[in-house]
Write a structure and sequence with these properties.
- It contains 8 helices and 7 strands.
- Helix 3 links the parallel strand 1 and strand 2.
- With 236 residues, the protein is α/β, with parallel strands linked by helices.
- It is globular, with a radius of gyration of 17 Å.
- It has one domain: Rossmann fold.
- A 7-stranded mixed β-sheet has the order 3-2-1-4-5-7-6, with helices on both faces.
- Bound molecules: S-adenosylmethionine.
- S-adenosylmethionine binds next to helix 1 and helix 3.
- It catalyses: a 2-demethylmenaquinol + S-adenosyl-L-methionine = a menaquinol + S-adenosyl-L-homocysteine + H(+).
């Protein structure tokens, strides 16, 4: 399947944008901030590095990059204008406007020249894209040689009693809490989309198959999120 994203995703994120940050913190018990911090730490950015954050939403990864690397420059792209609006306001309030630019773009058609960025991040975004090969190819194209990729995504814990407990929370309780604060079906779609996402070793293989090297993955918080890292090969 080529050049496809899941059709309702854009309008879904436009609709939940005002509640997105609040529900993220509540439903993950603030673990999401820790996961983003670790993802950014994995980038090994050069001084004044250029970072592209794809599916940047309300800008949390972009802001974390600047917290860790105040001399970096971040471009965030997302196709939900409402998420971007909230992100721009947060960035303005934190005084990071000179270091971060958020603009509308589709992950499948990134409006950048090849070899533009030292690092590319995507947090909780790749799961919402149907044509993941095309997205990974776009990331590869836009990265400089030796540039680093960090993909942060939700997962489910491995088989065992914890998995049963987690799935009870994830499939039954989370949609109820999400529904209390947002009338949208997003918090029913969330567990379904996580369950449909490939397991960590399969997705790591997919990243590798698009040309990335040193591909690795690391589970966070008992396996409820996974950080995938890889690198575009340096020029030989
Ligand atoms: C779960 S949010 C993650 C936002 C942010 N990265 C974070 O860490 O909170 C997923 C975001 O991906 C965006 N998105 C999904 N598919 C996209 C695509 N094909 N192109 C651009 N943005 C996309 C949505 O609009 C939404 O803002």
């Amino acid at each position: 399947m080529k050049n496809k994203e899941i059709p309702f995703v854009q309008s879904m994120f436009d609709a939940i944008a005002p509640r997105y940050d609040f529900l993220n913190r509540l439903l993950s018990l603030r673990q999401d901030t820790l996961w983003r911090r670790r993802a950014v730490r994995s980038l090994q950015l050069p001084e004044k590095g250029r970072v592209l954050d794809v599916a940047c939403g309300t800008g949390d990864v972009a802001m974390e990059v600047i917290r860790q690397h105040p001399r970096a420059w971040v471009t965030g792209v997302d196709f939900s204008e409402k998420m971007l609006e909230i992100g721009r306001e947060k960035i303005r309030v934190c005084g990071m406007g000179a270091s971060i630019e958020l603009k509308p773009a589709n992950a499948l058609h990134l409006p950048f020249e090849e070899n533009s960025f030292d690092a590319i991040t995507i947090a909780f975004g790749i799961r919402n894209i149907q044509d993941r090969e095309k997205a990974l190819d776009e990331f590869y194209r836009c990265l400089k040689p030796a540039g680093r990729l960090a993909v942060l995504e939700l997962a489910t814990p491995p088989e065992g009693p914890l998995r049963k407990l987690y799935l009870l929370y994830f499939k039954r309780i989370l949609p109820l809490i999400g529904g209390l604060f947002s009338s949208n079906f997003a918090y029913t779609y969330l567990p379904d989309s996580v369950m449909a996402f490939p397991g960590p070793s399969d997705f790591a293989e997919k990243i590798q198959s698009r040309g990335f090297q040193n591909v690795a993955f690391r589970p966070f918080t008992l396996g409820v999120a996974t950080l995938y890292t890889g690198q575009k090969p340096p020029i030989a």
